[in-house]
Structures are given as structure tokens and as C-alpha cells.
Amino acid sequence: MNSSLPIIAIVVFAVTANAQSKKLFSGKDLSGWKQSSGAWKAAGSVPLDPADPRKFKIEPGTGVLVNGDQGKTSNLLTDAAFGDVEAHVEFVVPKGSNSGVYFQSRYEIQVLDSWGVKDLKYGDCGGVYASCSEPKPDFKGRPPSVNASKPPGEWQTFDIVFRAPRFDASGKKTENARFVKVTHNGKVIHENVDAPRPTCAAASLDEKPTGPLMLQGDHGPVAYRNLTVKSVKLD
Questions:
Q1: What burial letters (b/e) apply to 30-66, b meaning 16+ CB within 10 Å?
Q2: What is the largest CA-CA distance in the chain?
Q3: Global model pTM greater than 0.70
Q4: Who has greater pLDDT, 195 or 137?
Q5: Whole domain around residue 200: which residue ranges?
Q6: Rounded CA gap, 90 and 32, in Å?
């Protein structure tokens, strides 16, 4: 392990301690998100459908962001763009469902029903997803170090420290994007994982200093709540 890592960690948390959290979802409507929001809507709760555990039984109300009655719609992007951030995400999926949280709309932490999975892959819940199209280099992804997943229908948490890619004055990339730390349901599953290029289903394949946060909505039913980010500056 690089002996400088503890110093980096001290800097990260010293900076974020004074940062202001930004709530991404009001609980009531889609303000703060791009208008091409598909079927995403506010709900009161999303218990599993007793008739089909692969679906939600969406209850009216506020506080929960769900991807529509059909459980499949367009991806959702924030109006605001972010660079280095510390993010908190709460999510729930029914049996077998799939989503993802894309930092800068390019680098994905996977959301999946991975309850009970033994042989973890990058496509399991909490994985840093792989690349799957040109240009090179390929990125094979990174599975979570442990399976911290809860059963389908239970709310789960991610706490993520993300460092944006770096560029020189000419716009040439000098450092890859990096997931400094990913914690899933209280268990650390990644530390200092580079994402050398955008992952599959990214909103765009170019790389920039900032970009919107994106929630994947087209792979199955998913709901989110208590979405917050702190814009920070990481060395």
C-alpha cells in the first residue's frame, strides 16, 4: 500500500467536514433534474408487490424517487454538474432488478439485487462497472470486495468518495477518475479504484472535469431517497 494514502484520507475528510451537503431530491418533485425525466416520480413508499416480488407496489406520497409504474424508463440526470464529491445514496430494488449510479454521468457504481451471491463480479451490487465500447483502453471493472447486499425490497446505502479526472491546461487528461472509497451498508467495498474511462451505458464517452450525476432507469424497477452530495476538493 502506498504510504501516502493515509495522508490523502486525512486531507479528504478535513476538507469534506466543512463542505455543505446538497440534497438532490426534494422528496416532492423532479426540480433539480433535467426535464427529460421520463416516468420518474415521487412516491410515499415502494413495498414489494405481494403478487410479484419482481415489482414494487408504489404507494402515493412523498420522499421516494421511483422510476415509474412500469419499472423502466429513461435515465435521470441532475441539472448541476459535479467534480470531486462525497455522496450518500439510499436505494431499493425488487427481486432480480438492476440500476446504477453514474458519477459525472460516466463512471458507474452498480445497483443490483445481489442478495446471497457468492462469486462476486463487477456487475454485482457495488461493483465499479466495466467499459464495453471504443475507444480503448478497455476497463474490466472491479467487483466489490465483500457482498454487503440486503435482500430485495430492503433499503440499502452507498457512501462514496469520488475524485474526478484531472486535465492539464491543454485539456489532456493527466489522471484517471477514481473511486477513493465506496461503503455499502456500512462495509468498505472499494478503496482507490481507478476508472480509466467511462463505463457501459455512460451518457457520453468523453471525459471532463465535471458532469451531472445520473441514475439508471431503463434496466428494471428501482427507487432512491436521501440523495446528497458534497462538492469537495481532493488532492
A1: beebeeebbebbbbebbebbeeeebbbebeeeeebbb
A2: 57
A3: yes
A4: 195
A5: 5-231
A6: 18
Q: Which of the two residues, 1 and 40, has the higher pLDDT score?
A: 40
Termini Cα distance of the chain: 18
Q: Is 91 exposed, middle or buried (0-12, 13-18, 19+ CB in 10 A)?
A: buried
Let me know if 2 is exposed, middle or buried by CB neighbors in 10 A (0-12, 13-18, 19+).
exposed
Reported as a single tens digit per residue, the pLDDT across 51-77 is 999 999 999 999 999 999 999 999 999
Per DSSP, 9 falls in state H
Instruction: Say how far apart CA 70 and CA 68 lie, in whole Å.
Output: 6
The CATH number assigned to the domain holding 219 equals: 2.60.120.560
Measured CA to CA, the distance from residue 222 to residue 212 in angstroms comes to 19
Burial label, 227 (beta-carbon count in 10 A; 0-12, 13-18, 19+): buried
Residues 188, 147: contact at Cβ < 8 Å? Answer: no
The single-letter DSSP state of residue 16 is: H
Instruction: Give the model confidence (pLDDT) of 123-171 as tens digits.
Output: 999 999 999 866 666 889 999 999 999 999 999 999 999 999 999 999 9
What total of structural domains would you count in the chain? 1
